[in-house]
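Handoff note, outgoing to incoming analyst
You'll be picking up this chain. Sequence as last confirmed:
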Amino acid sequence: MAFPYLYSASFDTGNNTEWDTETDTGNLLDFPHYSELARIPRYPAPYRGAYCMRIRPGDTNDHTLTEGDIDIADTVTRWIRFAMFVSADFGATADDIFNIFEWQQAPGGTVEAVISLRVTAATGNVDIAIADGTEAATGFTSLQKGVWHVIEALFTVDVAPGANGVLELYVDGSLVQRETGHNQAAAIGQGVLGTQNTLATTNAGFLLFDEFAFDDGRLGITHRFAEHRIIGTSSFLFVGTGKLGNIKILDGGGGNVILELYDTDVYNASLTPLWRGRTSTANIDFDAADVPVNFTRGCLGVLSGTTPGAQFQIMRATGWGSDGAVRTHASKRVAGVGGI
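Most recent structure output, in case you need it:
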């Protein structure tokens, strides 16, 4: 695993700007703030940060984000990882299999491999599988509803005769499916996250997605409330009052990585940063000396520069440790304080 990642998205901008394009005819895809989620019964907090991606089913349209940096050349292996929450009431009135991630050719969007969900109408059970082709038909593993899961997948592309392509699917760190001997028609040029090919009868509940990453090695589980945190894209480290005990800026080769920390829980990089630091030499990290740093509203880390990254020690945070802690903080949150 390299760091910074080849591509990552925190969803903490509260919109689709981390991705190349969005497709959402019917407006069922959005990026809710944690304070909005906290007001809705049975909704969790985002897996991390202040925002996540939400899809509420109910039609046959695609509700997706597409990214061209998710590319895999012939004979190359790459990994993806994301957090996903399937609501307890997610269900359908007819059995349905639909995709939540596709590896596609670019241009054109021809599908080479997929991660699919299967929902069974009679029971409400939701299962997950990976497949070479346009939709999974076998190999499904049951997913518990009402909890966050970390989904990882490996894809080794093979476009030559010999059938050596490999697909692997991991749920919460455990290998649940391995498919070998596949051939692809072409290399991968883009990845697509979200729901595709759903039936209109899949119309209850919601799906949440968060903390997406793409890299050249296995990414592993990202623990939600870990004391030590690494980011590769602008992200909220926590919401509510808190303190950072250590800050390191990670330089991926440009010598120009800038990190700005804002005292806010709403994405707004036009405010005056509370703390700012930068690297000055390629591949040389910067360890900050002027810490700890205290925050009242929350901590937003905004990264810029070539292949940026940052590492933090979170000493404490009010909305930390559980969905309940975030929900309790949100119930006491006063909007409009501190220029937000």
